[in-house]
Structures are given as structure tokens and as C-alpha cells.
Amino acid sequence: MNQSAIICVCGAGTMGSGVAQVCAQSGFSTILFDVNNDMIVKSRSGLNNSLQLLIQKGKITAAEKEQIIQRLSFTSNISDCKADIIIEAIIEQKDKKVTLFNQLAIINSTTTIFATNTSSISINEIAREIKNPSNLVGMHFFNPAPIMKLVEIIKTNETDRVVIETIKAFAKQLNKTAVLCNDSPGFIVNRVARHYYLEAMRLVEAGSVDIETIDAVMEASGFKMGPFKLMDLIGIDINYNVSRIVWEALDKPERLRPSIIQQQKLAANELGRKSGKGFYQY
Ligand SMILES: NC(=O)c1ccc[n+]([C@@H]2O[C@H](COP(=O)([O-])OP(=O)(O)OC[C@H]3O[C@@H](n4cnc5c(N)ncnc54)[C@H](O)[C@@H]3O)[C@@H](O)[C@H]2O)c1
User: Fold this and answer.
1) Which residue in 5, 55, 153, 192 has the fewest CB atoms around it within 10 Å?
2) pTM recorded for the entire structure
3) What residues make up the domain containing 87?
4) Shortest-distance Cα residue to atom 38 of ligand 1
5) What is the tens place of the pLDDT at every residue in 125-174?
6) Ligand 1 site, residue 234, Cβ cutoff 6 A
7) Do residues 147 and 199 both lie within one domain?
């Protein structure tokens, strides 16, 4: 992708903010859009802190930080979302994503690429309901996006070959490792990792062991983060939705049934780090 290309990231939450940072740090003019102005304010200050931390670690200079900030613009007005690549990172609901893509199709060119960061919604199902299905591709970043190297690129039955090649090259420009996947429930990582969360919660449900012990044991065995700390980082709402969508898409197998523990956390609005409390207090 030409360095003068414009990138628009939709959703200024955990993932959108991180993805926008990656794009701006890689030299692209980046628009960050959210319907919620409070999230924009939070994201702007979070991005500033995150870049400041990079200066302290000696990874960027103060002048580079200023250049990165110059490349970022924030908006709550959808009519500002005109770009060469649009990366959607809004709420994990198919209808909301479809509506957004169809609104964006009206104001963008027919060559604009639409990438979705969905963790679990079928990209084919989104493609079926949008105006330019051949321009749609999955671009699944991992949390925290500025740090995690992997990006799953998910093609649909209709994704244009040029779109796939452009997004592969773009991921490389973002200094990410891209893996091309077919569209299947949970793609690769979220499918395989489901058991990491679900089995841990089953042990707690059965009263066998507490969450702190499970986290400590899994970390001691080589995993970077225990399952409960990781669910708090991901967001319990997001993680629960992924579990539910993967379970339903595979005809509800018992081994993948979502946990009551997560449902209780959701009902109590204990969503993890982002809400100040999840399995742990922040
Ligand atoms: N959290 C993770 O670890 C993770 C990892 C990979 C992918 N994802 C995926 O990324 C997406 C976003 O997840 P997140 O954790 O950043 O969620 P989040 O709840 O932190 O942020 C979502 C943001 O989208 C905004 N939003 C909602 N509807 C919108 C709309 N119509 N237009 C613009 N903005 C809108 C909200 O105001 C909010 O700021 C989801 O699809 C999720 O599955 C999440």
C-alpha cells in the first residue's frame, strides 16, 4: 500500500485504538472514528500515554511521537471516514458491522478495502449483506495490537485476489506476521484457544481450584498469561461473545458450551480491565 494511503479505523475501544496506533506508527495517515465521544477522549489520552511509554523505553523519540500524533485524527462524524483501507473494530454484533459497512460504502470509492477485525463473526455472512462483498476481508489483530505480531487474514468466497494481496502487503508494512485463513468459526487462534478459557472456568465452577492458582500454574508452565488475566485483558463481554458465536456456529457441542461464570460477570457489568473489575480488581 502506498505510504500516502489513508487508513480509517472504526471503533476507538481496546482494539481500534491499538490498531490506529500501529497504522500511524507505520507512517499512515489514520482516522479514528467512534460513535461515542467519551471513547474518543479516552482513546486520545490512552494513545498519548502509550506513545509516551515508548519514549521512556527508548523505542521512539519525542519528535517521532509528535509525527505519529500528527498522522492521527479523531472523529465522531461518519462522513469523515473516507479512506483507502477501512478497518472496522466496533462492537461484536453482525448487524452493527453490516450497517456500518453499508453506510461507509456510500461515501467511499468502489476500490476502498473493508477489513473487519471481528474475532468470531463469519466474514462470509457479513459479505452476504454488504454492498461491495469482493472488497471485504477479515483482518484479525490480537490484543494488545501494538505488541502482538500475528494478524489473521480471512478471505471469503468472494474476496478479490487483489484485496487479499494488498492486505497481506499492508500487514507487512505494519510489521505484522500475516497468516491467511479460511472463514471458519473462531478462525484459527480463537478456535484452538477456546478450551484454554472454558476448561479453566469449568475447574472453577466445579470448585476444584481458584482462579489465582490456575493463572499462576499456567504461567509457570510457560503461557505468557493465565486464562483469567487474559480474559480480563480481552474483555469478558468480547470473550463471552466469541465463545457463544463459535459454539452456535458448530451446532452447540457440549465441549464448547459458554460458561455460566462469564454470563454472571456480564450481568454484573464486570467486564475486565476496561470496567475496572473482572476476575480481578483494577
Ligand atoms: N478485545 C480483544 O481482545 C479483541 C481481540 C481481537 C479482535 N477483537 C474484536 O475487535 C472488535 C472490537 O473489540 P474491542 O475489544 O475493541 O471492543 P470495545 O468494547 O473496547 O470497543 C468497541 C468500540 O466500538 C464503538 N462502537 C460501537 N458501535 C459503533 C459504530 N456503529 N460505529 C463506530 N463505533 C462504534 C464503541 O463506542 C466502542 O468504543 C470486536 O469485533 C472484537 O471481537 C477484540
Assistant:
1) 192
2) 0.94
3) 6-182
4) 13
5) 999 999 999 999 999 999 999 999 999 999 999 999 999 999 999 999 99
6) yes
7) no
